[in-house]
Amino acid sequence: MEFRTVIDIPKPAFQIEPLEQMLFVGSCFADGIGRRFVEERFRATVNPFGTMYNPASVLHTIERVLATADPQSLPRVVFITLGTNHVYRLKETGEIVDNCQKRPQCLFSEERFSIEQCTDYLDRAVGLLRRQRPDVQVVLTVSPIRYKKYGFHESRLSKATLLLSIERLMSLNAQRSTLNYFPAYEIVLDELRDYRFYKPDMLHPSEQAVEYIWQQLVEHYLSPRAKQFLKEWKPIKEALAHRPFHPESPEYQQFLADACRREADLLARYAVFDH
């Protein structure tokens, strides 16, 4: 007898390799997952211009990344995590701002993007990435974080708009293998489906929930070689994280030197794939 709904995770069109170069853009959920990839020694860049929540801000980040990055070092794998369809415009200029920078609320007007507007901004972002790197793989996901300030009904409507825009975008690109959808929102809302998987604010997924999502990413998105790398990296990571009572002791210094040597040897063996 099954007492939970197990979410089906679509098979991606690619696999993530060890030490893969990656870009994470989007909400604070993207921060959490992106940092986990960094901890596991993947070459991940996470929200280089700050946390972004809506499709317009995601596009702005990708434009800035592409304007400043070396074309030869653009990542093959890009995760885009959308949080909301709400945007804020500076009344004086009408421009969409990515961060209000704690300026008075009266300076801004709030707007809800339609499905079509969300799709348009996402399509432009994916198009830019594809032109710079034709073999790019984009993983789209919707953050499971609930937005209390909108009211929970409006928060659900916002997520629905994002989900429908992703569905439309993927339909428009059905003949290409660039886009992939990872159901983080559905995993938290339908599979975990319990407040024990939320932090005390009852809005953000708990560390346990994020760990479960990480495990699903590993299972479905990582190549066999990348999974093997994680197994070999785990004891070294734990050794490096060890905090002794006497860190200045010769014994611990030797222990730390051995762990660093093992890390260097491991990274050398798993040479970065040249995509």
A few lines on this structure:
The protein is an alpha/beta fold and 275 residues long.
Layout of SSEs?
Layout: E1 21-26, H1 28-39, E2 43-46, H2 55-68, E3 77-82, E4 86-90, E5 96-97, E6 108-112, H3 115-132, E7 137-142, H4 152-172, E8 179-181, H5 184-192, H6 207-221, H7 224-241, H8 250-269
Parallel strand pairs: 1-2, 1-3, 3-7, 7-8
Antiparallel strand pairs: 4-5, 4-6
Helix pairs in contact: 2-3, 3-4, 7-8
Calculate Rg over CA atoms: 20 Å
* Strand tally: 8
Q: How many helices?
A: 8
Distance between the termini: 45 Å
The structure class reads alpha/beta
Q: What percent of the residues sit in helical stretches (DSSP H or I)?
A: 40-55%
Mean pLDDT score? 90
The geometry reads as: globular
What fraction of residues sit in β-strands? 5-15%
Quaternary organization: single chain
Poorly predicted segments:
none
Along the chain, the helix and strand elements come as EHEHEEEEHEHEHHHH
Spatial order of strands in the largest sheet: 2-1-3-7-8
| Main pleated-sheet profile | 5 strands, parallel
